[in-house]
TrEMBL record:
Required co-factors: Mg(2+)
Protein name in the entry: Phosphoacetylglucosamine mutase
Single GO BP term: carbohydrate metabolic process
Domain of life: Eukaryota
Residues annotated as domain Phosphoacetylglucosamine mutase AMG1: 329-465
Organism: Cylindrotheca closterium
All residue ranges annotated as the Alpha-D-phosphohexomutase C-terminal domain in the record: 523-551
Pfam families the record matches: AMG1_III, PGM_PMM_I, PGM_PMM_IV
């Protein structure tokens, strides 16, 4: 611990760039052009000790029972799918989820304190400098991430925080490491704790092999005709996929087989997230540009794209070297997982009707294609909840189910399991071993592209489906269009709780309702972005022309 005067001196050396604005903790952390991040990172480091202290104190007062031992937290330095000129920072709760609103508020207050009289800050009054706080840190491949990490560490160590620097990680690896370092509090005994990068790769590799063994043995016995090409967006995903693949190859005795996964587009091969990655594929509806260089037979293509920190994934098949045949987004992934769980559950109850009942639900946002929501509700008869955009909102809603599947259309999502589910799965194990294996392959902390691609691959092998089968055998997406509208102040548009209706300006929703009643089976909504100063417009309709026209009209209404 260093004396307060020295902390203040360090803060003076790294001031906040913009003196007049309040830096906000957006949908997914502080994220700005990199020149703003130095001052922010140092202050997040300083704040880290206080966050853990507050969380710990709150646990004590809220539960009023046994004092919980203090648990590790985490920090990830990344700007996800944004280009190299941005960086950012996200914090992780001890269970690997995003920090709650009251901690975001504390963090924003500390980071934005301009007068440097930090120790008069209410959050610091009574702060015990013999901090026992411990933070796990990881960062992405951006050229400035390592420097920003060292500023975080400087701030945190000044406050007596112990920092474990894991180096370059995917975002979901960091969250997994944090969760597993607090395993006793959050994981059932059936999941062995593995709080490290190597442990993560071993856990993923062995769970994938176990799952294939019971539901798709053909996946791991011999050469695949079509390997899965993974577009790593020139980011952290590349090394992660390589390591998990090598784990699977060695453990599964697959050294003589052709690899079933081919990581492509490694760091250095091009600018991060530029003309590649999940955001590009999902929003531009185009294959990443490197795809044309692979010389793949487009008719057989089996590909996926992850984003710059590998917490999102979409799958695609090309129709030619630079055209997309099908896009398999987060909605399609959620439905595939839901369909599999449902089949396994009915097998389990068929084998033993006395098994305890578990609930299953799917959480989506207003961006979910209407055809996916309808398929889930009508065909699979699974309840669907719609929440506000942003993983923390979906995650929270998913916890209401024993099996809570959540995905944003952009490919960010996962499955969370209740304690009751784990007990059920251990009883159902002899009939349905997959039910017990899945919580080890799925990263319950946060959306995880590497975990998702292994899961999807095992399920496609199980159903004996190609990507094209997956695209056509469930439901057909309604044509949709997204537009962004540049505005002076995005806050003029305000929505209801799940962003399906506009409340402000008051004239907007009636006009949107009129648009929708003119085209049966259509839907449109507008919301203020949580990451850019724009208003986003979404429209879907039975035909492409109608969807495009509707989006254009709706965008005109926002101006
Ligand atoms: C952030 C969110 C993502 C959301 C997106 C919406 C996390 C980890 N990421 O990237 O889930 O879809 O923001 O952006 O929560 P928007 O508010 O600009 O539309
Ligand atoms: Zn991301």
């Amino acid at each position: 611990t260093i004396p307060p005067e020295q902390i203040i001196e360090t803060m003076q050396q790294h001031p906040l760039l913009d003196e007049s604005t309040e830096y906000g903790y957006g949908t997914a952390g502080f994220r700005f052009k990199v020149e703003h991040m130095d001052g922010i990172m140092l202050r997040v480091g300083i704040a880290s000790a206080i966050l853990q202290y507050e969380l710990f104190q709150n646990t004590k007062t809220n539960t009023n029972t046994n004092q919980q031992p203090q648990q590790d937290m985490g920090v990830m330095i990344t700007a996800s799918h944004n280009d190299e000129s941005y960086n950012g920072v996200k914090l992780s709760n001890p269970d690997g989820s995003m920090i709650p609103p009251h901690l975001e508020e504390t963090l924003v207050a500390i980071v934005n304190q301009r007068d440097l009289d930090l120790f008069q800050n209410t959050h610091l009054k009574g702060f015990d400098f013999r901090s026992t706080a411990k933070f796990h840190v990881g960062y992405d491949t951006r050229s400035h991430s390592e420097r920003l990490t060292s500023l975080f560490i400087k701030g945190a160590q000044a406050m007596g925080v112990t920092v474990i620097n894991h180096g370059v990680l995917t975002t979901p690896m960091l969250h997994h490491i944090v969760l597993h370092s607090n395993a006793k509090a959050y994981l059932p005994a059936s999941i062995p704790p593995c709080p490290s990068r190597a442990g993560y790769c071993q856990a993923m590799g062995s769970a994938y092999l176990e799952l294939c063994n019971v539901v798709a043995p053909c996946a791991i016995t011999g050469d695949r005709s079509t390997p899965l090409l993974v577009d790593c967006a020139c980011g952290v995903g590349y090394k992660a996929v390589q390591e998990v693949l090598s784990e699977i190859t060695i453990r599964g005795n697959l050294t003589t087989c052709k690899p079933f996964l081919v990581p492509c587009n490694e760091p250095g091969e091009g600018p991060l997230n530029t003309n590649c990655g999940s955001e590009h594929v999902q929003k531009q509806l185009k294959p990443p540009t490197w795809y044309s260089k692979t010389g793949q037979d487009a008719a057989k293509s089996y590909c996926c794209s992850v984003d710059g920190d590998a917490d999102r994934i979409v799958f695609f098949a090309a129709s030619s070297s630079n055209e997309l045949g099908s896009l398999l987004d987060g909605d399609k992934i959620a439905v595939l997982i839901g369909k599999f769980f449902q089949a396994e559950l009915s097998k389990a109850y068929g084998g033993n009707p006395k098994l305890p009942k578990v609930s299953m639900g799917v959480v989506q946002t207003a961006y979910a294609n209407g055809a996916s929501t309808q398929y889930l509700e009508k065909n699979l008869k699974v309840p669907v909840v719609i929440t506000k955009t942003g993983v923390k909102h979906l995650h929270h809603a998913a916890l209401e189910f024993d099996i809570g599947i959540y995905f944003e259309a952009n490919g960010h999502g996962t499955v969370v399991f209740s304690q009751a589910y784990h007990e059920f799965a251990s009883q159902a194990k002899s009939i349905c071993p997959a039910l017990e294996i899945l919580p080890r392959l799925i990263n319950p902390a946060v959306g995880d592209a590497v975990s998702d691609l292994l899961l999807v691959d095992a399920l496609l092998q199980h159903f004996e489906w190609t990507v094209q089968d997956w695209a056509t055998k469930l439901y057909t997406d309604l044509p949709s269009r997204q537009l962004k509208v540049q505005v002076k102040d995005r806050s003029v548009v305000q929505c209801n709780d799940n962003e399906t209706k506009c409340l402000q300006p008051t004239t907007l929703q009636p006009a949107l309702d009129q648009l929708m009643s003119d085209i049966p089976g259509s839907r449109t909504f507008c919301r203020a972005s949580g990451t850019e100063n724009v208003v986003r417009v979404y429209a879907e309709a039975p035909t492409r022309e109608q969807a495009d026209k509707m989006a254009t009209i709706a965008a005109g209404l926002v101006h």
